[in-house]
Amino acid sequence: MKNYLKPFKQSLAAAALLIVAAGFQTKASAQDDKTLLGAGSSFINPLFSKMYFEYNAKFGIQVNYQSIGSGGGVKALTDKTVDFGASDAPLNAEQATKIAVPVLHIPQASGAVVLTYNLPGVTTNLKLTPDVVADIFLAKITKWDDARIKGLNKGVTIPSLPILIAHRSDGSGTTNIFTNYLDKVSPDWHTKVGTGSAVNWPAGLGGKGNEGVAGLVKQTPGAIGYVELIYALNNKMEYAQLKNKKGKFILPSIASVTAAGNVAIPDDSKIFITDTDAPDGYPISGFSWVIIYKEQAYNSRSAARANALLKLLWWNIHDGQQFTTALYYAPLSKAAVKVAEKILKSATYNGKPILK
User: Fold this and answer.
1) What is the separation, in whole angstroms, between the first and last Cα of the chain?
2) I need a surface site. Which of 254, 271, 289, 328 has the fewest CB within 10 A?
3) Are 119 and 203 found together in one domain?
4) What 8-state DSSP symbol labels residue 29?
5) Nearest Cα to 260, choosing from 273, 269, 244?
6) pLDDT band at residue 40, thresholds of 50, 70 and 90?
C-alpha cells in the first residue's frame, strides 16, 4: 500500500499548490488560457490531483480543481465560473433546466463506494448484505452486535457499540451512487428516502466531501460511512465486503469495479452500474464524469481556451488513464473510450467542431 500512497500524497500536495485559495471569484473566461478551472466531485479528486500534476509538468497547462462535491461542481458550471464541472451523477432534470443549454458528459473512470467503519478490535472485512446495509442506514439496526450482523460474521468478536451513521452534508455524486444502490436493493429505502445527490437521511451526522465523512468515521468508534475506496485506504480504515446480486461476497478492488462496469455504454454515457449482474462485480460502483457546455463560445471565452479544454479532456480519457489503477480506480473500457471520443468530438466553437 505504501508504494501507491506515496505518489498519491505527493501529487495531491503538488496539486494543492495550484488551487485558487480564494475560490472561484473570477469568471473562467477572464483567466489566462493556460490555466483551466474545474470543480466538483471529491470521489474523483485523488485521480484528478495526479492527472493534473502530470499534465502541468508535461504541457505547462495548470488545472485548478476544487474538490467541493458534485453538487458544487454543477452549480459552478451553471454559474460559468469554471471550465468544467465534475460529477458522479448525470445532471438531473432540475439541474439541466437551470443550465438551459446542451451539455456533454464525458466519463473519466469508475470507482468503488465502500462502507468504512470504526470498530475497535475488528481488523477484518466484515460481511454485509444489501438488506442489512439498508436497515443500518434506515436506523433500524442500531447496535453493532445486532444478531443479523453477528450472523453474517461468525467467529468475529464485534463490540456492543451503538452505530453512528456518517453521511455527506453537501450535494454529492458519491451519495447519488450509494443511494441509487440502496434504492435498487431496498423497497423500504425506495419508499422512505429515495435516491439523489442529497437526501433526507433518517439518522446520522454530515461531513463535507469524502474527506469529511472519512474523518468522522476515523474519529468516532462505532461509526460507519460511505467513501470512495482510496479515502479508506489512505486513512488505513477497514471496509466491508458486500453480497452482490449473484450471492457472492465481494471486496472492492480494481478487478471487481471493472467487472461491474463491463456493460454496454449508451451514446450519452449516462449510466448507473450499481447492483451489477456481474458475478464478480462489486455492487456499489459508479462512473465519474466531466461535464462541459457543448457550445464553447460563451461568456467571452476564446477559441484557444476551448481548444485547451478539449485537449485536456482528450488526454484524460487516453494517456491520463495510466494513473487510474495505482489509485484504485478502474480505467475506462475500450467501448467507454470510444463513446467518450464521440462525445468530445461533438463539442463546438461557434458551431464548428473543436476536435477534428
Assistant:
1) 41
2) 271
3) yes
4) G
5) 273
6) very high
Q: 265 and 150 in one domain? A: yes
Q: What is the pLDDT of residues 195-204, one digit of tens each?
A: 999 999 999 9
* CB hemisphere CA count around 299 (13 angstroms): 18
Give the domain CATH number at 220. Answer: 3.40.190.10
Residue 102 sits in the same domain as residue 124: no
Per-residue pLDDT for 22 more than 70? Answer: no
Cα angle vertex 262, ends 261, 267, to 5°? 80
Round the CA-based radius of gyration of the chain to a whole number and report it: 20
To 10 degrees, what angle do helices 130-137 and 173-185 make?
Answer: 120
256 grid coordinates: 471487481
Last residue of a domain, one of 266, 285, 304: 285
Same domain, 221 and 315: no
Q: What is the pLDDT of residues 280-322, one digit of tens each?
A: 999 999 999 999 999 999 999 999 999 999 999 999 999 999 9
Taking the C-alpha atoms of residue 258 and residue 282, their distance in angstroms, rounded to an integer, is 9
Kindly report the CA angle at 137 between 188 and 327, in degrees rounded to 5? 120
- In three-state form (DSSP H/G/I as H, E/B as E, the rest C), the secondary structure along 125-155 is CCEECHHHHHHHHCCCCCECCCHHHHHHCCC
Structure confidence at residue 263 (pLDDT):
87
Domain assignment of residue 71, given as a range:
2-109+286-353
Find cell 456533454 and name the residue. 104
Q: Cβ(241)–Cβ(126) under 8 Å? A: yes
In the chain, alpha helices (H): 2-16, 45-59, 70-78, 93-99, 130-137, 147-152, 173-185, 187-192, 209-219, 229-234, 254-260, 303-317, 334-345
| Residue pointed to by grid coordinates 470512495 | 228
93-146 pLDDT tens trace: 999 999 999 999 999 999 999 999 999 999 999 999 999 999 999 999 999 999
